[in-house]
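TODO from last week: model Pre-mRNA-splicing factor SYF2.
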Amino acid sequence: MADSPDQTANMAGPQSSKDADAITSTSTETPSATDPKAALAARMARFKALQSQKESGRRQTEAELRADEDRPQRLAQLSKLQAANEKASYKLLKADDPDFERKRNWDYTVEESASWDKRQAKKARNRDNVAFADFRGEANKVYKRQVKQMGEKDLEEYAREKGERLQRQVRMGLLQLVEENGEVFTVDAQGRVNTPAEELYGHDHKPSKEAVDKLVDDLEKGERARLKARAARGIKDDDSGDVTYINEKNKQFNEKLNRFYNRYTTEIRESFERGTAI
């Protein structure tokens, strides 16, 4: 018995719908999976986006670097403006009130006033002591400056080494341990308190790496200061020949002698040099 057309259509309906869906899904697939031009365009768009991101990152990094480089200059300008503002305010207040200085001093105690006067006197002495007087005074100034530049760590290390040295000298009998009023201290033969006795410098002493580096930095700093001072005076180091002078004045004097007597002493110097060479 033959099926009716309606039954045939109903039986073939699900299969036909599946085929239609497959065709539709195939036709609606992204062109990038099948079209090379579309895939290339998508890759180019992604590449341009990465390039734009890289360029924006580079510009941001350059802006941050410029800001870091300009920061010290901006801080210096800001500090200068603040100092100028404070100075102008002080002048205005002083001009408005003749007793401004006397009234301002009312806020300070006697101890603070004495400490201020002491600091001002010390600054005045330092200003007067800037010029070169003698080598002992220069060495004393360098010593005081280096002591002032010592950090807390250096002071602690100095106190520790001094304590160990005092204990060692007490055990050796160089110092006497004394206890008085609950305090313990050492006394040497001259009656000095908590002062290590003089000892010969031992060959076993080995400074730390930090101490050696600090010494090298101090020497290099002094050499840079010396060269800077010479450059400020218009003096250049003469590395062209033998050094026959002890200072700049002696060098000028030797040059003057050479101008007048060099033609007479050239033969004598050459004879000495030949004799030394032989």
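Done. The longest strand covers residues 176-180.
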